[in-house]
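Hey all, sorry for the wall of text incoming. These are the three entities for the joint prediction.
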Amino acid sequence: MGKPLQPSPALTPNSIKSSLEDRDGSSSRDSSRERERDMRSHFMTSPQHQMFAAQHHLDQLKKQQQAAAHAQSHQQQQQSQTPQPPPSPHSVVLQHQAAAAAQAHAQQQVNAALRNLGQHVAPSVYEMAALTQDLDTQVITTKIKEALLANNIGQKIFGEAVLGLSQGSVSELLSKPKPWHMLSIKGREPFIRMQLWLSDSHNVERLQAIKTERRELSKRRRGSGAQDNSDDTSSNSSDFYHSGGNRDSSPPLSAKKQRVLFSEEQKEALRLAFTLDPYPSVNTIEFLASELNLASRTITNWFHNHRMRLKQHNPNAANQAEVSREQPNSGGGFDPIQFRLLLSQRLAGLNNLNIPPLLTHPYFPGNPEIANLIRGFPGAAGLRPEQMFGLDLSVKTTDEGSDCGEEGMEQDGSDQEGEEEVEMREMQRGEAMESARSSRRKPAAPQWVNPDWQASPANAAEPEVIINGVCVMQTPDDYRSNDNETVRVEPTPVLDEDDIEDDRTEGARSPGSERASPRIKEESMVERMKEDDEEQEIKREPEY
DNA sequence: TGGTAGTCAATAAA
DNA sequence: TTTATTGACTACCA
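and here's what came out:
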């Protein structure tokens, strides 16, 4: 068009970077980029993509023309406004040099723009990710896994060479691919790269070559007595498909804080806290941090990660977290006292304390929801208030008794099913805000947090059995076989006179309806605990 | 400030 | 040795 073209505004930093790298004239880079471009073209053969690309190309051309015209007029305007100093012999030379430099720069711009135009015919991965309306991530990852397995290629080498990602990220992408519509453009890029790789007829050969190269390099290093890192991501030649793959800008390893290893008790506490409030306030985070002897930042990270991973596993459950966020009191919010009590039950369960079940907790005579919740934990009964407070959760168990505890909770015959399956079903019912792998125990809180969840049509279709006050999803066969052994126990709170009086004044309430948010006054509760402890007045319900 | 999304990398498990 | 898990982190957004 005879005018210097401005770089496309739609270009990503990566594509700009690739243009700059092209200018360096690196032959290996050029050849690999050509290969990638070929694959992109191949990928873009579908009518849908071609249509998008053509439209996009037209748009970009228009924008570039406008930008070029604007830049030229702006330059002329500046020249006319700038006062020109009288020329000197020296300045004339400088002017010539500047003119030559400007001309070279302009030529470079043209070249870059032409290259950019070429890239619009075969768009960047970013653009492809942005323009592709739908892609079956499950199918892609299945194909990738098959290809890697068949050719004995590891996730590590595939991730580094093809996707520009670490092994852990590749593992997550391949084993738990998110649906396309749930991915951001950035998140879609790896799948585009996978698709490109699949459409490359020499994909496996190239990776095998990289593998061989790495192996030889490793041997050489070992032979020379150098430390074998075996993690030679610095080998640029390995970075076949990933133009933006160098991570020079990443912070040094020392900058990353060493990860904390949570004890089972700490995990249990965090899970419990999450069921009570998936979006804890700053106060709650600080409370948990001091309670668990962890940094606030660590608590925050855990909640972030847990929300994200729960969402990844089961969007429905994550939606319920959102609901409880919008209605903080519907799920009971976070009450430190309640948390401590419930946690003591859970820990008792973890430690497999063989204490007879108490079906109505004496410390919560006026609170059927909490009493109901506590029933879920066999170790609840018999614990004195002093046993429930001051828990040292920072101490990790040495006998791995927690695992035994978790196993011990699994008495409902659900071993016959896959653990994962059972848990996914739990979460689908919306009764669990727990992570898919974290707990085999039925999370108790959602039973009363939001009774509507149980009443949903999807849930109503599923048979359920009450064990220790905890709803346990079972198959119809399980249900039949256990029917005779299981007694459904309805919550029957023990009311003292005050409570009865309160109930009279407030009117009758159905459990778990308006009273879905029990807020317990600490002082009165402790007093009540003492009284009840002294009186040892335990009202027992039918045992089973 | 605090949320999400994506990722790294240490560690555990297979 | 490879793969899965998960705490920590960055980037970006409202």
